[in-house]
Specification:
Radius of gyration: 25 Å
Shape: globular
Structural class: alpha/beta
Strand order of the largest sheet: 3-4-2-1-7-9-10-8
Strand content: 15-25%
Bound molecules: aspartic acid
Mean pLDDT: 93
CATH superfamily of the largest domain: Acetylglutamate kinase-like
Number of strands: 17
CATH architecture of the largest domain: 3-Layer(aba) Sandwich
Amino acid sequence: MLKVAKFGGSSMADAAHYKQVRDIVLSDPSRTVIVVSAAGKRFSNDYKITDLLYLCYAHIKYGVPCDSVFGTIRDRYLGIRDELQMDFPLEDDFDALFAEMKSGISEDRLVSRGEYFSAKLLSAYLGFEFVDSEHWVRFKFDGSVDQEASYEALCHAASGRKCVIPGFYGAMPDGHVKLMDRGGSDITGALAAAALDADVYENWTDVSGILMADPRIVKNAKTIGRITYSELRELSYIGAQVLHEATIFPVREKNIPLNIRNTNDPENPGTMIRDSFEDDLPTEGNLITGIAGRKGFTIVTITKNGMSSEVGAIRRILGIFENFNIAIHYAPSGVDCYSVVVENKQFDPCRYSCLAEIQKELSPDHIHVSENIAVVAVVGRKMVFRTGSSGRIFAALGESGVNIRMISQGPEELNIIIGMKERDYETAVRTLYERFIH
Ligand code: ASP
């Protein structure tokens, strides 16, 4: 049994968390490969080390002394070390970094040092080896991860060993350090799990898993115990913020379960994400796995007598949106009428040119623009097995006075997408939660 455990910034924020991390790691001998983030916030108006490193680089770039910001970063790590009463000389590493900053350092290399110092410190604290991501996460020249080369390099460096790995960075083919997107340590963890064919990838954070609905709307929303990768994709697409999107791919590809856990509540089993659950009984449990959504959409409806029989009309409509670089999120259609649901932030800047183009290209009878639309996704792998699911969902919304403006259901019946006026959004989410989640 091999578990890759990734600990996020909040789990690496101070000495008390290091102790919790150590207890978690040592409580299970199969947790042998640990991936870490840079130290995160200890309290709400604290600084994240990664942000301070970006700030340091901005100082260097504009020729402003950064001694004080650098001092804050250094003190944070040395403070953790001292509080843990470790005899581990990090000073030389910091001095060398400061010298490098004076002689010219790339932004990526400087910012990557947050994860580097976290991993160095934790590896010494656990008595595990330190495996630098610079030596195994390989990027191609186009910036994508070279999975084959990376997996091979990690197998070589880490197989059969207990080690701590810094997240968030790797190396370009010429050896230069390259960062991933923000939140990228999740991806490093997933790559490590995939490379080593781990039995599970544990992602330790400061919440006990994925919530069934937005806690700002539903107070005390429950945690999702089990969710499939496809369901998670549906929820995160529309707004549930869980993991970095690219995290899922390497583990899903290898069918490795992903378990989201809470460092502050290690007994809680958190959320388990898998391709499927063998012991899942379609008729038991909640109909809905989770609800997500967001505001800020517009529905453009194009109506033209005879359009449904006109070859190429839909392609031309889609082509116009494509030319304006507007992504189409949903496209419900009827006879002689076709709607697209687009995001305001993409549509608004070019709305009139886009509508003029539709007018010119298709000569429709009518173009209707419906603004201030919110979209809610009701996601549940069990909906397909239960007759009347959508009827019950729509009835519940109707009873709460939510006027439905758009409906779309994926062919796999994994989700039901409902568009409504933004003012009805919170009522809709609350109603669905109260009626369908027990
Ligand atoms: N430290 C990086 C960030 O703040 C990467 C990570 O934590 O995943 O984005």
